[in-house]
Amino acid sequence: MAGYEQSQPQGPMQPQMPGMGTPPPDMPMEAPPPQEPQQDFQIEALLREVNIAKKLSQEKREEIGIAVKKGYETDLSSRSDWEQKLDEWSKLALQVRETKSYPWPGASNVKYPILSTAAMQFAARAYPALVPANGNIVNYRVIGEDKGGMKAAKAKRVSQYMSWQLLEQMTDWEEDMDRMMIMLPIVGCAFKKTFWSEKFGRNCSNLVHPKDLVVNYWADSLDKCERKTQLYYYSKRELLEKFRAGEFLEVDLPDPAADNLRKEDKALGLVAGEVDESTPYLVLEQHNFIDLDGDGYPEPYITTALYQDATLLRISARWDSDGVKKDEKGKIVCIHPVEYYTKFPFIPNPDGGFYDIGFGLLLGPINESVNTIINQLIDSGHMATLGGGWISKGLRIKQGAHKFSPNEWKQVDATLDDIKKGIFPLPVKEPSNVLFQLLGSLITSSKELASVAEIFTGKMPGQNTPAYTTKETVEQGMKVFTAIYKRCYRAFSQELKKLYRLNQIYFDAQKVGSVTESPMSAQDFNGPSDDIVPAADPSATSMTDKMQKVQMLGQMIQLGLDKNEVVKRILEAMEVPNYQELFSKQPPPPPPEVQKLQMEQKMKQEELQAKMKMEQEEHQMEMEKIKMELEALRTELQMKFEFEKMKLQLEMQKLGIKMKEGQIDAQLQLQQAQIDQATGQQDMNMQQQQHDQKMEQGAATHNAKMKQNRQTLTLKKDKPKDGTSK
User: In sequence order, which ranges of 309-424 are alpha helices (DSSP H)?
Assistant: First the structure.
């Protein structure tokens, strides 16, 4: 798979893989030359195996199983301090109340929900942003030129299908996202495992608690760590099912032991039950590197082993055929492993550790201090209310506790003066104002750190607070959340890319119903996975932000923006469900074959129209030329007529012959008729040429439309009734 880097060793903390240990002192330091891989252990052959462990000897199985267990324990030990802190954060978030004996048994033990409130506020903003109510979760970007809109149509189909896939087909995906948004701010990170499930026949992307994914604390990242181990708890019945299905090697199971149980956590009030037949077995699924083909280069595998006795259960390849890179001689240069896990970070760890930090680390000490102060105030009030003190031995009052009910009077064998002298109340001071001030300061600091000020929880500021001040306060307070939200956005993008890759491999058009506006095919997932992004806006932190952006678009319609597209953006920002139904129904786009034919016909028609336009312009220029020549001829004839008229008048004057005005007019009319006849003939010729040109253009346009209609009817006749192409 492109985009994955080869994992590198992480230093001395990483144990050596099987077959790569340090030789004893009496052995030569030079490593033996790599052996030629056996035929059964070729890379191509191993990729096709369901369980490679079946091909190994019993000795090799034991060696690998022990290595898996040892590697897990090494990584678990490296993060022991982090696990201890995680228990403390969980206790604060769950408001676990321990039994207290100080300052007295039954003293106040209140837990103020600072951490819980911060987590809920983060989830309330992040979850609806990543999973909008309109169901548009996935976007497929169109990059480059898109003639005919075919890329845009494909992107729309992919976006609709993957959004339906997450919400409807992957039934537990939305619930896992909801849980993760609560877990993430407390723990600091969370994981999603994306894979194809043969059992369910679909893609899966399951939530993995950080406690159940063991990675060396000083690992750089998921794709660069030497190994990572996920913990599974299987009952005996579940293991037997996997034995019979051939998924695991069929082995003799030991009796369940206490080590198989989840760790007893008294701080959280959890107590492990007794070991019996229902006790689950701890199974380690480790993504590691092992050299099975004997060429000296370890390949990436998924190795599964029983933790109790390190029994190997399964080995499967963790690469694709296109992830194997070889040189000219056919020697393996590197193998890019397929990454199944996606890490959702909260705040990067300043010490460079693998596990990020959350509100549990940031707010934990403040929360504990607040709890202490509140309990001190309650205990002080309790002492001041109930009171106590000393009674003189000479006072005649029966010993023991004396309780008074309202309007109750009791008799004693003593005077009032004796009672005043014999009873001394315990001096109890009222709570100090410093404690109240400190308590308020700590709570305010925690809210500022977690961006859960009163204005973010729904409480409005004072009536005299200017609007711009409120807006600036909100924007300043949301900066922390925006940065965290962008990290979640990047992680979500990586998860979608993994799902897109699985669709490239396992997409089955026959199992897809009418979830998209136009039929889908496997060709829709041929594009690069980098174009898949979440539909969420990483820069928008609230509904107000989204509405402000679309309102600005509405104000820019006058600049030439598409009005319908702007309205669609506004409805999307408002999260109006099924807003597409508000627009007029458009017929579904034709199949790709018809679109291609229509595109070719359109191009031919455009070429024909351009040619006809050019010919028309040339003819128009020729007609203008003829018109100019005709005008010139008319002017010339008129000038000759005037000249002859003047010449005739001069001759008549010279001869002294006076002719009647009627004869002269008759001669002039005759000459004018001759001129009109000549010019009229030229006009008729020009009109006839224009009429012939229009008839030729009409015939050519009619023939092109008839040809297009015949091709479209032929294609629809050959198309099956179900809408799929042959």
Answer: 359-386, 416-422
